[in-house]
Specification:
2 copies of one chain form a homodimer. Chain A has 400 residues and is an alpha+beta fold. Chain A has a domain at 259-380. Chain A has helices at 11-15, 17-27, 81-99, 172-185, 230-236, 259-263, 267-274, 311-314, 353-367, 396-399; strands at residues 67-75, 120-125, 163-169, 190-199, 248-257, 326-336, 339-350, 374-384. A 4-stranded antiparallel beta sheet of chain A has the order 2-3-1-4, with helices on one face. A 4-stranded antiparallel beta sheet of chain A has the order 6-7-5-8. Chain A starts with 10 loop residues before the first helix and ends with a helix. At the A-B interface, helix 4, strand 4 and strand 6 of A face helix 4, strand 4 and strand 6 of B. Chains A, B: Residues 57-199 form the Dyp-type peroxidase N-terminal domain. Chains A, B: One of its GO terms (cellular component) is cytosol. Chains A, B: Keywords: Heme, Iron, Metal-binding, Oxidoreductase, Peroxidase, Signal.
């Protein structure tokens, strides 16, 4: 295989469509048709498309997309540190093009790349990457598969993975197209092992952003630190090891939700399990979504308003030594013939999985009232490398 | 079971949330929690929500939604003509509420009903409905399961069905919520046998409507008659039997598309198979999407520009005795673990399945170049009753 393994792609190659197309075609060998007519790239309309560049991968702090697909891939046996670097350079070129609404290098369906779809791509590295020769000392602290919780019913089909692609957009066609390109370009290096598609409605009827609701009808994600706040930075961005500064870790948990038994509850039973009001997401001691939880508040009979086993209490940062996570859920439905499984693709970003996420997970597993209607069937953990700048590439400090 | 079977729901019951909720709760018996607190219905924001009323079910002529789900249900043995009428009245009340962004009667997740999602519901009746006592003489002409074509590889899991619900919206959460309500309310009468979810991008980067593309990258649907034109009416709306006037028939075909082998073609090979340009959807004899097909045009070497087996030729109304269909595709992906199936949920509306659709289907089956990359794995046919007016209900003229 010929490829750009021995040279750094120039800024022109990464940014110019023609140059990037040639680089991509060379690396993927016979799998793309070099002789194809490629249309002129449309002038991108940048109004709603995020820049692919920055200190951080840009989708992490952005709003949850309307549609998303996650694909986990396992490395082929032949993929060593250098090959992984080649893949990251290929993906970087793909991401720069696709997020601007331009065809990826060697794109076989270039018309499906459209600007203004707010397409984003986030890439993660699973724990096994850090067992490759040359990478063992670079492993972020605590980046290990999560221990199996008592309530977990993990299926291998939804768990683990050496690499993650998380593509989001306002438009499902754009998501499917981008994923197809990224997975195709990875073929010499890695093979898809699971795919999860999800959706979210983070826009109110008046067009303004809202937190959004899961399929139980709950407002889901109220407790998050505000993007851009100092608290957000401290929660999400890793400060080491050096290559990983500005990166984060991502936990992906596939949680089935039993809508049928949930629907058998009264609304007050549902609200008691969560500790928040269904109507607004306000804590049961308050009236507005972002009111502070009062974990000591009691009703006239002396009972805690937010029960001991309420989800909102057990997941609150005040009972987690002040440590927070940044969570972004995606609703999913998965059909097998006439049978539908419904649930949440739970995504949690944090600087430190072991320090921030695991204690909370253990506490929820031990006592969360919601465990009666939810079951985690998939679990995976990834290091999300920092962002890249023009001319740079994903995980460059790790792999160059 | 108590219910409104012996009385016609009043306009107030169908339109008023409180009245409709009581009616719905009574009919579905123990399956909804009567004692639940129901939130005040929000004032609907009607800007983007279609009226549920009219001569026709409103989604038929409307643009393809961004997201849609189709559910086919089979009648329970106990569901006779009268029971089917009860179900249609229940669904009508659901549809009136849900399309305005209000909770359905007895809604167990009322907060998931949001206005301005452009939600629509279309209901269809499969051929077996017209074998029920009292309905055999009402069967629309030609409403039979399609004959199995030579290239078909039909799976029972994606075929047939006594009833159809087709829910579309701009937002996937709204679709999932509406489907859940409609299927739950149908539980005493019918059981889901297949579900298909699809998506479409009918909006250009500048926000203006476009025809949209399938996952081969083709502009798909250019040949349709313009909604609202006399030609559209003649193509789509049935004129009999009397109860069915203003109705239409809907063919649902699940067509897998082999993206991998398609991608091995050059662009000119792809365009030759379709007979249109990938860039614009223009016929190979033209330059703009809506240019007329010239089926006699030849290149400098005397070869037909639009090949004898090109899809655009064989599906063109001029080779179908001038008869047209109105087609609306939905892209789909369906995952089983790491394996992805991609394709198109092909929807064709026409006044007369046997007269308009079948001859074209037979011609395509015999010779369409696209048959090499596509396989139909599901097939179903439904009569789509006319619309209803305020105080009326779905299929009222058939079932009252």
């Amino acid at each position: 295989m010929t490829g750009p393994s021995s040279r750094r792609p120039s800024r022109r190659q990464l940014l110019g469509y023609a140059g990037a197309a040639a680089a991509g075609a060379a690396v993927t060998g016979g799998t793309v048709a070099l002789g194809k007519e490629t249309p002129h790239a449309a002038e991108p309309v940048v109004a709603r498309d995020l820049s692919p560049y920055g200190d951080h991968q840009p989708a992490v702090a952005a709003a949850t997309p309307k549609h998303a697909e996650l694909v986990a891939l396992n490395l082929l046996g032949s993929t060593d540190r250098a090959a992984l670097g080649r893949l990251m350079r290929l993906w970087t070129a793909d991401i720069v093009a696709l997020t601007a609404g331009r065809p990826a290098p060697g794109d076989t369906a270039p018309e499906l790349a459209v600007p203004n779809a707010a397409l984003t791509v986030t890439v993660g590295l699973g724990p096994r990457v850090f067992t490759l020769p040359g990478l063992t000392t670079a492993k972020p602290r605590g980046l290990d598969a999560l221990p199996v919780m008592r309530h977990d019913r993990l299926l291998p089909a939804w768990s683990g993975g050496d690499l993650l692609i998380l593509v989001g957009a306002d438009d499902a066609v754009s998501v499917v197209h981008a994923v197809r390109r990224l997975v195709a370009d990875a073929a010499p290096f890695a093979k898809a092992v699971w795919r999860q598609t999800g959706f979210w409605n983070g826009t109110g009827p008046d067009g303004k952003p809202v937190t959004g609701r899961n399929l139980f009808g709950q407002v889901d994600g109220t407790g998050n630190p505000a993007a851009g706040s100092p608290e957000f930075g401290a929660t999400v961005w890793a400060t080491g090891p050096e290559w990983f500064t500005g990166g984060t870790t991502l936990v992906v948990r596939r949680i089935t939700m039993n809508l049928d038994t949930w629907d058998e509850l009264t609304r007050s039973e549902q609200e008691r399990a969560v500790g928040r009001k269904l109507s607004t997401g306000a804590p049961l001691n308050g009236t507005a979504e972002h009111d502070e939880l009062d974990l000591e508040a009691r009703d006239a009979d002396g009972r805690l308003l937010i029960a001991e086993n309420a989800h909102a209490r057990l997941s609150h940062h005040s009972v987690n030594d002040g440590r927070r996570i940044f969570r972004k859920g995606l609703n999913y439905v998965h059909d097998t013939g006439a049978t539908r499984e419904s649930g949440l693709i739970f995504l949690s970003y944090q600087a430190d999985v072991a320090g921030q996420f695991l204690p909370m997970l253990a506490r929820l597993d031990a006592a969360d009232a919601l465990n009666e209607w939810t079951t985690t069937i998939g679990s995976a953990v990834f290091a999300v490398p920092p962002g890249f700048r023009e001319g740079g590439w994903l995980a460059q400090r790790l792999l160059s």
